[in-house]
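Budget justification aside, the reviewers requested a transparent look at the raw inputs and outputs of the sequence design task funded under Objective 1. We therefore reproduce one unedited record. The lines immediately below are the C-alpha cells for a 469-residue chain.
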C-alpha cells in the first residue's frame, strides 16, 4: 500500500498601481511559502507501505530455479496491456475456487505475458487491502488466514494473501512462479521483529525469463487507515534496479541483479516512490539516502520539461524555513539545501505534471546530517516553480542594506521582472534578455521581493523574497 503525502502550493500576487511606484491595492493571496506544515501533516508518509507477512518461507529458494534469467522489463513496458487490464477489471467472479477463477482468466489470455498480467490485474483490482487485519497483526501478533480460498471468500487480505493468491493462480494457469519474502522500507514499525522480514511479493517466469511484481503495492493506497483502491501497473514486471529501492528479498537471488546489494547498501539507498519513475525522473547525483552536509548541498535530478517539482526540509517533524531552493536548469533540477543548524533532517522532493491541477506527490526522500549551520536561502513562491524559474544570484536570504546587489535569474514566459522593496514601495525593473533578467539594485532596509508579470495577466506575482536588516 502507499499512503502518499501530497502538497498544493500557495500563491501570492501583487498589483502594481502606477509608474510612480506606489503600491495601492496590495492584494495578497496566501503570501506564504510553497510548503506548509498543515499540508504535510494531514496525510501519512508516502513510504509507509502497509504490509506484513506471517511466517517466512524457504520453499521458494532461488537455488531451486537456476538458471534464473532476468527478463527485459523495457520490452514488457513497450507492450500495450491496457485491454488486458480492462478485461480483468470487468471479470466479476464471486466464488472462492482458484481453479474456477484461473479457467475464467485463461479464456481471456493466450500468451504467458497475457496470463501473468491478467492475474496481476485481476488480483489488484478485485482484492482490497485489509487494514484492520494489518493493524491487528502489528499490534497483537494476530495474523489472519491468508490462504487463496480465504482471500477469494473475503475479497480482502494483507500482503502474504496477495502473493499467495497470485502464486496459486499462476500455477493453475501453468505459469512458473515464486513467492518472495523480504523487507520493504516503511512497511512496519521499526521494531526488532520486523527488521528482517515484513513483506511478500512474487516472481513470475514469462517466456523463459523472470520478472518481479508486487500485487499488494499495485492494488492501492492506505490513507488515514483506510484502503483507497488505485490500480498501479508499475509494480508488474518492475525493473529490478528500481524494485530494489524499496524491496530487499531475504534470498538475494531474487534481486534479479547481476551485482546484488547487501542489506547495508539497500538501507542506504534513497527512498524512491513509483511516482519518481512514472514521471520520468532520474538520479544524477547523491545515490545514498544519508548525506553529510558540512556546507550547502546541491542535489541534481534529471527531469522532463513537462514536470515541475518542489521540496521540503524537516527536523523532528518541524519544517525548516529558508532552507530549500529548487532551481530548474533545462532538463535538470537543482535542489539546494541549507540546514539552519547542525543536526539530522528529512529532505523530501515532490513532483507532478505541469498541467496536473492536483497536488504534488512525493517522489524521493533523503536524510541530511548537517554538521553546522548554513546561511539561509531566499524564500520562493508558487509561480517560481510553476514557470520553472531559476535563481542564479543572490542565493542568500539576507542582503546587505545600502549596498548594490546584482540580481540574475531565468523566468521563462515572463514579460517583466522587477525588484520591489516593501518598505519604500520602490520598483526597480531588471533588464530582460529573453528569459534572462538581470541588473544591479541598491538594497534598502526591509523586505525585498522579486516579482514578475506574465502574458494575459496585469498582476505581478511574487517569485523570491529577501530581507535586509
Amino acid at each position: 500500500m502507499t499512503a502518499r503525502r501530497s502538497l498544493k502550493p500557495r500563491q501570492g500576487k501583487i498589483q502594481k498601481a502606477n509608474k510612480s511606484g506606489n503600491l495601492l491595492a496590495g492584494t495578497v493571496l496566501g503570501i506564504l511559502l510553497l510548503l506548509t506544515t498543515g499540508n504535510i501533516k494531514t496525510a501519512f508518509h508516502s513510504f509507509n507501505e502497509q504490509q506484513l507477512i506471517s511466517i517466512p518461507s524457504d520453499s521458494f529458494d532461488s537455488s531451486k530455479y537456476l538458471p534464473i534469467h532476468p527478463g527485459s522489463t523495457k520490452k514488457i513496458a513497450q507492450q500495450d496491456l491496457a485491454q488486458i487490464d480492462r478485461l480483468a477489471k470487468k471479470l466479476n467472479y464471486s466464488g472462492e475456487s482458484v481453479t474456477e477463477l484461473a479457467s475464467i482468466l485463461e479464456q481471456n489470455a493466450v500468451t504467458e505475458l497475457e496470463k501473468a498480467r491478467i492475474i496481476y490485474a485481476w488480483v489488484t483490482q478485485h482484492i482490497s487491502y485489509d487494514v484492520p487485519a494489518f493493524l491487528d497483526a502489528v499490534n497483537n501478533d494476530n495474523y489472519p488466514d491468508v490462504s487463496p480460498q480465504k482471500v477469494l471468500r473475503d475479497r480482502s487480505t494483507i500482503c502474504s494473501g496477495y502473493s499467495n493468491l497470485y502464486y496459486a493462480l499462476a500455477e493453475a494457469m501453468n505459469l512458473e512462479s515464486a513467492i518472495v519474502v523480504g523487507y520493504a522500507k516503511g512497511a512496519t514499525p521499526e521494531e526488532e521483529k520486523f527488521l528482517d522480514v515484513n513483506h511478500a511479493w512474487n516472481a513470475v517466469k514469462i517466456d523463459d525469463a523472470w520478472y518481479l511484481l508486487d500485487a499488494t503495492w499495485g492494488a492501492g493506497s492506505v490513507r488515514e487507515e483506510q484502503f483507497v483502491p488505485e490500480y498501479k501497473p508499475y509494480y508488474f514486471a518492475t525493473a529490478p534496479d528500481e524494485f530494489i529501492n524499496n524491496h530487499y528479498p531475504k534470498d538475494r537471488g531474487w534481486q534479479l541483479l547481476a551485482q546484488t546489494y547487501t542489506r547495508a547498501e539497500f538501507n542506504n539507498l534513497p527512498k524512491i516512490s513509483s511516482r519518481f519513475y512514472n514521471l520520468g525522473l532520474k538520479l544524477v547525483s547523491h545515490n545514498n539516502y544519508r548525506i553529510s552536509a558540512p556546507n550547502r548541498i546541491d542535489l541534481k535530478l534529471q527531469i522532463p520539461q513537462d514536470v515541475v517539482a518542489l521540496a521540503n526540509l524537516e527536523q523532528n517533524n518541524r519544517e525548516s524555513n529558508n532552507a530549500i531552493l529548487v532551481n530548474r536548469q533545462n532538463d535538470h533540477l537543482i535542489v539546494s539545501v541549507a540546514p539552519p543548524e547542525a543536526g539530522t533532517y528529512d529532505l523530501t522532493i515532490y513532483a507532478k505534471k505541469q498541467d496536473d491541477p492536483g497536488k504534488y506527490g512525493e517522489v524521493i526522500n533523503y536524510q541530511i546530517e548537517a554538521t553546522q549551520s548554513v546561511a539561509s536561502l531566499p524564500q520562493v513562491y508558487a509561480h517560481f516553480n510553476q514557470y520553472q524559474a531559476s535563481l542564479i544570484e543572490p542565493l542568500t536570504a539576507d542582503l546587505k542594506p545600502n549596498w548594490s546587489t546584482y540580481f540574475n535569474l531565468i523566468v521563462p514566459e515572463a514579460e517583466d521582472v522587477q525588484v520591489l522593496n516593501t518598505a519604500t514601495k520602490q520598483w526597480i525593473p531588471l533588464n530582460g534578455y529573453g528569459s534572462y533578467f538581470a541588473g544591479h539594485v541598491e538594497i534598502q532596509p526591509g523586505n525585498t521581493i522579486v516579482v514578475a508579470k506574465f502574458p494575459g495577466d496585469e498582476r505581478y506575482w511574487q517569485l523570491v523574497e529577501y530581507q535586509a536588516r
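The domain at 6-33+379-468 is CATH 2.60.40.10 (Immunoglobulin-like). The chain has 13 helices and 31 strands. Computational costs for records of this kind are itemized in the attached budget.
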